[in-house]
Q: What sequence folds into this?
């Protein structure tokens, strides 16, 4: 029986020391530690979350999601953090929802407790989040990577929605996000056959912003470089930029362009717009106030 209390239990961070901090740690700003994830801040303004259930190929258990959402909330509220990176390890970003935990779930338990719904917390963040994928990103792992704002992967990453082989279907947005990127025919083929696709294909079909040569180290460095760059800009403009791109998913072109223009107008009320444009004219580097 799935431990349903895990679906809604509040987080208490475990006080044990982190077991295997990434070698990149230079700017450690987070003191909490967890059982299923590792948090660190390896670059200025960047929060890094590493999924850490290597023996289960980072299978996404309810307990992992309680911790992940707690860490995301802390980064969202941390004024020192401007962008977040979510990653796994060389073997797996995540091999899907935890099948062993999920197997005995009844319809009533899944429905009443809105199983999987807490996964969507990530999509409510206003700060940008980049997934750095190497190894397996299957089922819920593929869906989690696709929920992020920018998806980076290795060319050899192994994506797929194999739920059909388990007698079920994607449950964390895979049918919607895959179809938005790949188009109906390709998404239908992937979901109904359970065939996997490579990181190289993810880039070719527009699911990934970039597929990197090499392994986990290379894709993580690429994601951290991009996150650091984003975090160096005005937080106000970055949040506005994310908001208007996301609106394009919901609105038609005409309403989307009007929406963008209104947000663009509103930025003339920010200090950072004045600072940024004056710095350009003065040939100086802008010093953002994030206001
Ligand atoms: N859930 C729970 N445990 C998992 C898991 C998962 N999704 N994926 C892997 N594991 C566990 C395995 O059971 C195994 O544990 P034990 O050592 O205790 O037996 C360990 O991780 C290592 O896995 P394998 O021995 O299977 O490793 P492999 O290299 O031979 O195969 C793999 C790798 C092809 C990814 C294979 O593990 C696999 O097929 N995993 C399941 C992938 C899958 O079906 N994902 C979709 C889940 S459903 C879902 O996500 C629903 C949704 O939309 C939200």
A:
């Amino acid at each position: 029986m799935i431990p349903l209390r895990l679906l809604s239990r509040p987080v208490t961070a475990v006080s044990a020391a982190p077991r295997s901090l990434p070698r990149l740690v230079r700017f450690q700003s987070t003191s909490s530690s967890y059982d299923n994830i590792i948090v660190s801040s390896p670059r200025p303004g960047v929060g890094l979350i590493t999924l850490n259930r290597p023996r289960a190929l980072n299978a996404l258990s309810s307990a992992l999601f309680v911790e992940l959402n707690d860490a995301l909330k802390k980064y969202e509220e941390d004024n020192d953090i401007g962008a977040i990176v979510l990653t796994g390890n060389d073997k797996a970003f995540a091999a899907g929802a935890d099948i062993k935990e999920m197997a005995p779930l009844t319809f009533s338990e899944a429905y009443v407790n809105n199983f999987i719904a807490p996964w969507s917390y990530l999509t409510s963040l206003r700060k940008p989040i980049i997934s750095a994928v190497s190894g397996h990103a299957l089922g819920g792992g593929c869906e989690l990577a696709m929920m992020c704002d920018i998806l980076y992967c290795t060319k050899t990453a192994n994506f797929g929605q194999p739920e059909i082989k388990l007698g079920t279907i994607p449950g964390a947005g895979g049918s919607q996000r895959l179809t938005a990127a790949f188009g109906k025919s390709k998404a239908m083929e992937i979901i109904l056959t359970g065939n996997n696709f490579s990181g190289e294909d993810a880039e070719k079909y527009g699911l990934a912003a970039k597929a990197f040569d090499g392994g986990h180290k290379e894709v993580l460095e690429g994601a951290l470089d991009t996150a650091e760059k984003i975090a160096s800009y005005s937080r106000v403009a970055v949040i506005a930029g994310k908001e208007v791109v996301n609106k394009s998913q919901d609105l038609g072109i005409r309403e989307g362009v009007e929406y963008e223009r209104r947000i663009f107008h509103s930025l003339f009320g920010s200090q950072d717009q004045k600072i940024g444009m004056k710095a350009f004219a003065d040939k100086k580097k802008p010093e953002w106030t994030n206001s």
About this structure: The chain has two domains: 4-231, 235-281.
